[in-house]
Amino acid sequence: MTWHAVLVGVDASPAGGLAAACGWAVAEAARVPCHLVHAVREPSGLARAARDSAEHRVISERLVANARDMVGEVVGSAVPAAMESLEIRIGNPGWILAQAVKERDAGLLVLGGKHHSAPTRWFGGSTAHHAVRAIDVPLLVAAAQSTTFARVLVATDLSDAAAATIMAAQSFAGLFGATVRALHVVEPLPSIPDVGIEPDECAHLEVAEAETKASLAALGVDRTIEAIVQCGAPARTIADHAADWSADLVVVGSHGKGWIDRVLLGSTTERLLNRLPCSLLIIPVHGRVSSR
Q: Of all residues in the chain, what percent are helix, strand and coil, respectively (each to 5)?
């Protein structure tokens, strides 16, 4: 997998240190530059001051200096060498990250995984959730101390996202010599009690397994990749399988559902973001997939 650069969004939390360490390790494996960016939210006092005024400059300099001290302590402890690439910007984190991705021509964005309450996700969201919705490059959400990846689980649903998702998983695994396993989750068939029809789950799984293997073969997937088919709710089944297999990374495709769909129904990707069974690599279906 080749990128021009890896961009890491960091803050002063433990998750910021995880992101820095993970992003730095991936950049080294891919032999590309790694850039660290921290966004300081603009206080109301700064927004009211004229942009070219002395007051604005003084407040901005203090914000940047304080942020550099706090974030630098976390980043410096995780990856001392990364301090040279740490950049502090003032503004909304989501907008700052999107801007930095374009400026650096980054092919991968790395963030630290955080667990948020349901109300926080619905009304305030998180930087990772906003990045999935708005930034069209692969997003790696770091959720473990390890900066090596030995087992990569790729979730495939046989949709248009399958090819890009599997290719990205194979390419990423190749950077670390990791083993790849493909998991396809089929949801249980509904029973129809009024007419006495009960679904044949075994036959259902057999058909799904045959379709999965045929789809993987058509995509030219390495035959050494084990294909697994399981029945259940997608997000929970993927998370449970990742835990049982001791996966270091789960790779999923983002289908780009609309905002209303995600708020009312959720999505497998966003549910996995909430669970974070391990680090998560999200491949945008309609965005740039840097696996050239």
A: 50, 20, 30
Residues 216 and 87 in one domain: no
Question: Do 289 and 235 share a domain, yes or no?
Answer: yes
pTM score of the predicted model: 0.84
Torsion over CA: 98, 99, 102, 105 (sign): negative
Question: Across the strands, what pairs with 142?
Answer: 112
What burial class does residue 193 get, using C-beta atoms within 10 Å of its C-beta: 0-12 exposed, 13-18 middle, 19+ buried?
exposed
User: Where among 102, 118, 144 does a domain terminate?
Assistant: 144
Task: Tell me the C-alpha distance between 12 and 67, whole Å.
Answer: 8
Task: Indicate if 111 and 203 belong to the same structural domain.
Answer: no
Instruction: Look up the CATH number of the domain holding residue 79.
Output: 3.40.50.620
Could you read off the pLDDT tens digit of each residue along the chain, which spans 292 residues?
567 899 999 999 999 999 999 999 999 999 999 999 999 987 765 655 566 677 777 878 888 999 999 999 999 999 988 888 999 999 888 899 999 999 999 999 999 986 544 444 444 457 887 788 778 899 999 987 778 899 999 998 777 667 888 889 999 999 999 999 999 888 776 555 555 555 556 666 777 777 777 777 776 666 678 888 888 888 999 999 999 999 999 999 876 555 444 443 357 887 888 888 899 999 987 544 444 3
Residues 163, 89 share a domain: no
The β-bridge relationship of strands 226-231 and 179-186 is parallel
